[in-house]
Design goal:
alpha+beta, ten-stranded mixed β-sheet, three-stranded antiparallel β-sheet, 15 helices, about 20% strand, binds adenosine-5'-diphosphate, binds magnesium ion
Length: about 500
Amino acid sequence: MTAATEFEPVIGLEVHVQLATQSKAFCGARAEFGGPPNTHIDPYTLGLPGALPVLNHRAVEFALRMGLACGCDIALRSELSRKHYFYPDSPKGYQISQFDRPICENGHIEFVLGSERRQVRLLRIHIEEDAGKNLHLAGGRTSLIDFNRAGVPLIEVVSQPELRSAEEAGEYLRAIRQLVRFLGISDGNMEAGSLRCDANVSIRPRGSTQLGQRTELKNINSFKYVQKAIEHEILRQIDIVQSGGRVVMETRGWDAARGTSRSQRQKEHAHDYRYLPDPDLPPLIIDETWLASIAAALPKTPMQRRDHYLLRLGLTPYDASVLTAERELCDYFDQALVAAGVPTEDESLGDGLRSRAKLCANWLSSELLGLLNKDSREISASPVSAESLGELVRCVSDGIISGKQGKEVFFRMYESRQSPTEIIEQLGLRQLTDPTLITAACRKVVDDPAMQKQIEKYKQNPKLLGFFVGKALAETQGKAKPELVSAIMLSLLAEK
Ligand code: ADP
Ligand code: MG
């Protein structure tokens, strides 16, 4: 029997991303998720005779944002085609999609797998419209259809068959989710169906360069199941091959409840769909000036922000991945940095500023996110503003308060929404840094007749410095900055 490790899994994903436009891809009906059934519809959505499509400008802009962010070749002229199939959720009898002339080709998705940075190449990204939703009632006699989703714009992101494990496929998909959210083109919510994924899976003998026969898994509707479904399919195929069988090309539906898949249909081929350019839609021509303006305004990708944090700020990969989990978190962090006095762009940072950035990252990821998590709050609902957090970091870095005092101030900031400066004043926490006052306190200690014996001992044993520093600190009710007390005490004792 051949060991399972002698097979190499090959995976290619087709990922559908629902674009967050206000209206649908080819008509003015609302594209918003949900709503009472069949309320976001119009004659075009229902495929009524005479209703003509008008392409949604915003949907094209969103597709271009994705294409540019993935380094795709953008086709200045592409085509919208009818893909024919007959199913109740498609009232026109065809879906508008793109066939051999998609808007974006090539490019890649970047992500991190373990500690390794990976790039998976894309075949294409194209625009298409979503179908409606069938609802099969229990009992099997009645099916209902909701057309609210029909005609909502999607992009389909198609990878090369380059993913090599279920885990890698999961990370790839997470990277797409993160990217579309950073680009502001979709909420990437898999559970609500705005991100959907079909997984093409095959196996081949390790070392082989030929592709094996693939199956296509559909109906995977959560991140958890992407990995499970693919793992299951890899094992199923290995099993078939090991027992002398052949994998057949088919579409299989994942059944999450049973943790297994079942054959839905033999895979159809492109010619089955009778693709033809939609006669109601002219070729899609992209104006180069418009494209350039989209490129110029393109939000930074999670990977660009990650690199910035690693290379310029010197943060750890762990910090960088926590901060880049959400765009709102990156934005918050960047604002906090400014308030903490860390310059934002184009300057290389010295160690001092790098450690200040690190301090910001720590306060954000352990203290603030810890509390927000506990209270199930998003960063956007944080009672501590980015400016306040940065200000707190500045107070600690500048020695106005100690790190320990900083914690107390932070908790009060979280409770009261006040700024750190306000709280520091209220609590009278400001560290004493005035040299005259500190010198006076130190003098009081060393001039105390009761101390003279200790001073003689100190001359033999300089380690006793701490004892005098402690006494002087007590004179200031612990408010003086310890480093200053220490330095001043040292020079006063030297005079003795
Ligand atoms: P279709 O549209 O018929 O599904 P495509 O050629 O567009 O076919 O491929 C769809 C997806 O299938 C792509 O993501 C591609 O990487 C993947 N794919 C193609 N061949 C294989 C294979 N042998 N094993 C795994 N994935 C594959
Ligand atoms: Mg396919």
